[in-house]
Amino acid sequence: MSEMHDDPYSACPDGFTVVQPKKWELFLDLDTPSSLDQYDAMLLLLQKQFVAVEYKRTTSRNGNTHVYLIVPALDFDDDNILRCALQACLGSDPKHELLSLLSILRSSPAPPTVFYERDLTSTPTQEPVL
Hints:
This protein is α+β, with helices and mostly antiparallel strands. It is built from 4 helices and 5 strands, in the order αββαββααβ.
């Protein structure tokens, strides 16, 4: 999300679909080459502690990279702050993550983490193993 909205469904651009993460998913919005480098380095560190599998990449509406990552041992539905923190540590767009945290802190009913995706039929990079 580029702005804070109470309803991401009404803010969704025409031709896009709102995608919410499952309880074990992280959604990373990687906007720069340095954020991609950070993701690669921090993913290796995360994988020393937990099984973490990237299973899909898509192109955002701004031409950047969306990464779908699963961490089956963690339940982010119970802790969206942890989800935002890990996404930020893994290189996700800081503005995106700050807006998500502000949404959580003000007890917004809106899901704090969503992607707007053009095409949900992208090819997975790896089949998720749960």
